[in-house]
Structure prediction request, 122 residues.
Amino acid sequence: MQEVIIVLHAIVWDYPNHPGAGGPQNRRRAIGVRALILAVRTPSEGETARQEIAAKSGLDASRVDVWELDLSSFDSVKRFVEKVRKLERLDVMCENAGIAGFGFKKTDNGWEEIFQVNRPVR
Prediction:
């Protein structure tokens, strides 16, 4: 069965020393997928990750999509969710996204930034 996988914060997805990534395992997981969707805050960095993942895994780059997702913006999250709802299927979602920081900062939505970005909503 060919899977559809979404990876949040995909720019670290292929870094072997990143604690939330697991590079070699993820490259193996990419082989044979129908679609790999990289959810990133900065599309240009996602495009770089797309090329690197395709090159290292052997996965055809046309099977890897880059979707913008800024978890500190509810509007961005809503746009992302609308795209996800149009998928025929979704098999795996790797939630690598998260931030750490010092000090209090509010998002445009009025929430404390670290709480909004790191709080998975089920």
Remarks:
- The beta strands are 4-8, 35-40, 64-68, 92-95.
- The chain has four helices and four strands.
- The radius of gyration is 15 Å.
